[in-house]
Structures are given as C-alpha cells and as structure tokens.
Design brief:
478 residues; mainly alpha; two-stranded antiparallel sheet; two-stranded parallel sheet; 4 strands; 50% helix; disordered C terminus; Zn2-C6_fungal_TF; Zn(2)-C6 fungal-type domain-containing protein
C-alpha cells in the first residue's frame, strides 16, 4: 500500500470553510471553495464572518453520536413511557444545523419570506407529499396549516422548512432560501424536542405526529443539498460519501410517535387518513422462495452468522431476512411509494449493520434506493436513486464478491428513461391491480387490542429490541 499523502491543516482559512470544517486554500480576496459554491467570502466581505457566527439556541447538539441509534431518555406520556429501542427524533440523529435562530418576523425581509414559504406550501408543496386521495390532499393542504395556526410552533416551522427546501430545489443559488431552510429546520427540531420532553397527550398527539411526518420529508429532502466536499481522506474516495442514516432515524421517529400516542390518535380522522394513504405491508415470509427477486442477497448468510457474536446471531439473521422480505414486497407493489416502508420497518439491528458498513447490509440498502427510481419525478426524491446507489457502491472494494449482487441496483439507478421495461425491472405489473392496497390502520388497531392498548407495550410490539417488527400481513410461503 503506498504511503498516505501528508495533509496540511488550514490555519488561516476563511470563516465559512471553518464552519463547514473543510480545507480552505486561503486564496485572497475570495477562496476557492467560496468561488466554487458562489457564496460570499469573508476575505473580501468581513461582514460574512458576523453572518456565520454561531448563535445560542435551545438545543446545543452539533455532532452526530458515534454509536448507532443511541438510546435517548424516554418520552413522558400520560399512561407510560416509550419502550426501549424506540427513540424520538433529535437534531443529533438527523445531523441538522442547530446554530441558527428562527427568523424574526418583525423584520420585513423575514416576514415576506415567511409569507412566501406558506404560499409555496399551501399551493404547491402540500400536493407533492405522495398523496393518493383528495382526503389526504385536504389534510396536508388545509387542515395541517390550520392546526399550526392554533399555536403549534413546531408544526408551523416544519411546514415552512419543507417549503423552503422545495423552493431551494428550484432555486439552488438563492442564499435567502438557504438561510431560511437552515433556520426553520433548526427551529422545528428545537421546538419539537422541547414539546416531546413535556410529554405527549390528547391535546398535542395529532400535531406531534404530523410534525414527525414532515420532519421525515425534511430529512430526506435535505440530502439533495448534501455536499461531498467535506474534508475527506485523499486516499479513500469512499470517505466522501456519508451513509444515509437520517433516513432511518426520521422514518422510525414517525413510528415512535404513533406507538407512544396511539391511545389518543387512534380516533383521529386526520391521522387515519395519512396512515391509510400508504399501502399495508403484505410480506411473503419465505424471502428465498419462488418469486423472491432479492433472495440472492441472503446467499452465504449462514457462513456470516457463524462468525457473529453468539448472542447476536439470531437477531442479525432475522434483521437481514426481514429487510429482504420488505424489498421483495415493494418490488412487486404497483404503488411506487410502497418502497418508503423500508426505512420505517427494518429492525434496529439492521441499521446498526448499515452503520458498521457490513457488505450485505449495504447491498440490501443499495437495492432499496434502486426501488426509488420509480419516483425520480418527485422533487424530494429526484436523483436519489443514482446518488445513493452509486455512493454505496463506492464503499465496496474492487473485486468484491458482492459486485454481482449490485448489478441490478446499478442498472436501475443509471437507467435513462421514464419507464423501466419489465425485463429490466424484473417484474411485470398487473395493470388491473389496485394502486395502493390499504391496511396500516387496521394492523395498528389489531396490535393495540392484542397489547391491551398500553402505550409502552404497543411501542415494544412495533419494534422490540433488536428484532424486526412483525409483518402486517403474511402471505403463505411458496
């Protein structure tokens, strides 16, 4: 192996490069990074330093924890606490900026920006959240803003944050939108976490559920703007790709809120409309049987488990198997958004395996992102398939035995065209099949009844420690 190239740290770099923790070339009057991204540099404009100076906020988290999905203090609820293994969303888990304050609406520019964002949300963005019925359109477009106007600051900021990200996707050079999206994201998380600490109850359960859902959209959309120019190891190109762990934290955060507040939201027509707008899982519990398109991802699993810690063998095996079951179901579903069930339903152990960069876990994840190719026309998922699949592929060594398992996701991710032929996709959809079979609410109701409707027990049933959640509907194995 050739010796590592020396790396000289920048000591006199511009403030923007220091804030972003990237190497500054120290070129005056404007450094190369600021020129590249078309942003002001404090070498030429000293006032930029004031703009970037950190401001104290209610949440003082600035780094991502090094341990996988760290345990957080339980969320107090009226009838119990969250079960271990289910964590609330926090700024640390989502890697969101927290050194920005909410815009001051007494300032005319901020006030006009807020009006612009609310107009964008109600007229455009609310219609892009993968709704599939007029009832759900009504919820996101009218009911949710009205609920925010009743004093739910975290919900209002979540609305404005998603709208700002949407506008940023269309106007990437608009610096005011960049600042607004960062500020409203930070404010959303700060207010949301503060509300969770006070406890979930009948009065705020609906709003917290809707906020958690918008945070999930927010977390996914933020990856559009993730730069791969962080300070990386020059001898390791793979270090320039950040694993998409915020996907799991955000979507599983929604599941956490549902589990801990179901006693109060089970009778909500608003929540029912949103949950039932997604297809219910119908898993074939034989992931390697006839018709299992992704069964090959489990080849050699027994050999891998033989090297596993004996206490983790069963949990690891089940987490891989369940993840492949979800892939098989989403691959055959006529509803493209069915794929989004993956990050919210996989086991906590599987997320740990992804964070550990286990080849099998990464190959499964690449197949999940390939499934999202069918939604390339959705702004917050645009190009996500190509970007994430190729980023994950870059983590595999040349000559890896896993390359043959990556052929399908690579082919799909790089497909150039609006329609993927059945022989390339690997399945021919039945045009007469219903677009989105329902079933999520009925499954939660069944679990709530079986668990005696206790929030902590229901939360445990959603995702017991290290175990994949039970399937919503199990088909007979082939």
């Amino acid at each position: 192996m050739p010796p590592r190239r020396s790396h000289k740290k920048s000591r006199a770099g511009c403030r923007r490069c220091k804030v972003r923790k990237i190497k500054c070339d120290e070129v005056h009057p404007r450094c190369g990074n600021c020129v590249k991204h078309g942003v002001p540099c404090d070498f030429e404009a000293p006032e930029v330093a004031d703009e970037l100076a950190p401001v104290a906020t209610p949440v003082s988290v600035s780094t991502v924890p090094s341990t996988p999905i760290p345990m957080q203090p339980p969320i107090p609820v009226a009838a119990g606490r969250l079960s271990p293994g289910l964590e609330p969303i926090t700024p640390a888990l989502l890697s969101q900026p927290t050194n920005l304050t909410r815009p001051n609406t007494s300032n005319q520019a901020d006030r006009l920006m807020e009006l612009r964002l609310m107009h964008q949300y109600t007229n455009v963005t609310a219609k892009t959240l993968l709704n599939n019925s007029p009832e759900v359109d009504e919820v996101w477009q009218r009911v949710v803003p009205n609920m925010a106007f009743e004093g739910r600051q975290y919900l209002a900021d979540a609305i404005l944050s998603v709208a700002a990200l949407h506008l940023r996707s269309e106007n990437p050079q608009d610096k005011a939108l960049v600042r607004a999206s960062h500020a409203y994201t930070a404010s959303t998380l700060a207010e949301y976490c503060a509300s969770l600490e006070k406890g979930i109850n009948a009065e705020n359960a609906e709003a917290l559920f809707l906020t958690a859902t918008l945070i999930a959209f927010q977390s996914v959309a933020s990856r559009i703007f993730a730069k791969d120019d962080t300070e990386a190891d020059p001898d390791d190109p793979s270090s320039r790709y950040a694993l998409p762990l915020p996907w799991f934290h955000a979507f599983q955060g929604v599941k956490t809120i549902v589990a801990s507040s179901w006693l109060w939201i089970r009778s909500s027509s608003i929540v029912k409309a949103v949950i039932d707008s997604q297809p219910g899982l119908q898993l074939n519990l034989n992931p390697s049987g006839v018709g299992s398109f992704f069964g090959h991802l489990l080849e050699g699993l027994d050999e891998e488990l033989a090297t596993e810690d004996p206490h983790m063998m069963q949990t690891t095996g089940r987490s891989y198997t369940h993840a492949v079951c979800v892939l098989n179901w989403a691959h055959r579903s006529t509803f493209p958004a069915a794929s989004l069930s993956f990050p919210s339903t996989v086991a906590r152990r599987y997320v740990e395996l992804v964070e550990a960069k286990r080849p099998r876990a990464l190959a499964i994840l690449a197949c999940f992102f390939a499934l999202l190719k069918r939604m390339d026309d959705v702004w917050w998922l645009q190009d996500v398939s190509r970007r994430e699949v190729m980023g994950l592929v870059g983590l595999f060594e040349s000559g890896s035995k896993w390359w043959r398992h990556l052929e399908w996701p690579i082919r799909i991710a790089l497909w150039d065209g609006t329609t993927i032929p059945p022989d390339i996709w690997g399945h021919e959809f039945d045009a007469a099949a219903p677009a989105a079979p329902q079933g999520f609410v009925s499954h939660i109701e069944l679990m709530a009844d079986l668990m005696g409707q206790a929030p902590d027990q229901l939360a445990s049933a959603f995702n017991p420690i290290g175990e994949p959640p039970p399937p919503l509907t199990a088909e007979s194995p082939d």
